[in-house]
Amino acid sequence: MAKVLDYATPGPFTDLDGVSPLVLESFATDPVEICSPVHELVIQPTDTQALNLSAGRFDENQIRPAGELVRRLLALDPAPPATGREPGKRVVGTCRHFAVPSCALLRHRGIAARVRCGFATYFQPGQRLGHWITEYWDDDGSRWVRLDSEILGRTVLPHPHDLRPGEFLSGGEAWSGPDDRCLRREDRRGLRRASRRTHPRVPEGLIGQAAR
Q1: pLDDT in tens, 92-144
Q2: CB of 130 closer than 8 Å to CB of 202
Q3: CA 137, CA 93: separation in Å to the nearest integer?
Q4: Which residues contact 34 (CB under 8 A, 6 or more apart)?
Q5: What is the CATH number of domain 21-196?
Q6: Which parts of the chain are beta strand (E)?
Q7: Fewest CB within 10 A of the end CB: N or C in the chain?
Q8: Residues 6+ apart with CB under 8 A from 24
Q9: Are 151 and 167 in contact (CB under 8 A)?
């Protein structure tokens, strides 16, 4: 008998055990509001040039478990993470470091959530760039909602809290092409070529996996 996954239950990478309940209770209960502070908790390595961070700080982009990431945030600044951080007190990481804590915080609130690894179509026109996002289950709409917490509050998209079909392709979608109807003809020709490239923002060999 196949094992049924409970996406509301934390796994090894989304378990927040060891993080103070007082810290976690500072987060909201609405799914989008839960994820909103995350874009001010992580900073991409390419955005750190003006900060003069020590070389050791860049090891933070190897942090995998969400609980360890939150503990690192608190070591940099003991203020509740729900308030966000100034750039120098954010964890250095990539898109994965936005998606996994978002998933962990949603699960902490009892909301079914999962991380998706694939390709975003909204960073550079005509290109599918390796990227990680978060999905949560919307009971009212009976559907998975795709949310990109890295760009919440930014102007990359008008609706990063509810990505439209074709704006993000999971690994399986990129290979099978179910969303090709959403793409221009010249984009369709390049889709499979793009899906074979390893972009610097995606750890090699992890495409298509959902963090547990």
Answers
A1: 999 999 999 999 999 999 999 999 999 999 999 888 999 999 999 999 999 99
A2: yes
A3: 26
A4: 27, 28, 102, 105, 106, 109, 111
A5: 3.10.620
A6: 42-43, 91-92, 113-120, 129-138, 143-147, 168-170
A7: N
A8: 16, 105, 108
A9: no
Angstrom distance (rounded) from CA 100 to CA 43: 14
Rounded Cα gap, residues 101 and 84, in angstroms? 13
Phi and psi of 39, rounded to 5°? Answer: -70, -10
Both tokens of residue 105? 């915080």
SS3 at position 65: coil
- For 59-92, what is each residue's pLDDT tens digit? 999 999 999 999 999 999 999 899 889 999 999 9
- In DSSP notation, 146-174 reads EE-TTSTTSSS-S-TTSPPBTTEEEHHHH
Give counts: helices (H), strands (E), the chain: 6, 6
Local structure of 6: helix, strand or coil = coil
| Nearest partner of 60 among 37, 99, 94, judged by Cα | 94
Q: Which residue reads 């609130």 in tokens?
A: 109
The pair of structure tokens assigned to 162 is 């509810």
Which residue from 72, 26, 34, 14 is spatially nearest to 161, judged by alpha carbons?
Answer: 34
> What residue ranges do the domains of the chain occupy?
21-196
Phi/psi of residue 168, nearest 5 degrees: -135, 130
